[in-house]
Specification:
elongated, about 0% strand, mainly alpha, single chain
């Protein structure tokens, strides 16, 4: 039976890391989608993606322990 190696970070640090990473990456994607929405004709699928990205950004900002 293989032994589990010890974690390099605690649960709170891992939680903070995940929320920060998801928030930062989603914010970058949101900026790109918003730019595309401004430059090109309306696209309902893209507007829906923008809506979902905004929800993720808002939730990760709200729950991020800064």
């Amino acid at each position: 039976m293989a032994r589990r190696s010890k974690s390099l970070m605690g649960a709170a640090d891992a939680h903070r890391f995940v929320l920060t990473t998801v928030h930062d990456e989603t914010s970058a994607l949101l900026k790109a989608v918003e730019e595309i929405c401004r430059r090109y004709p309306p696209n309902n699928d893209l507007y829906f993606v923008r809506y979902l990205l905004r929800m993720v950004v808002l939730e990760t900002r709200r729950h991020r322990p800064d």
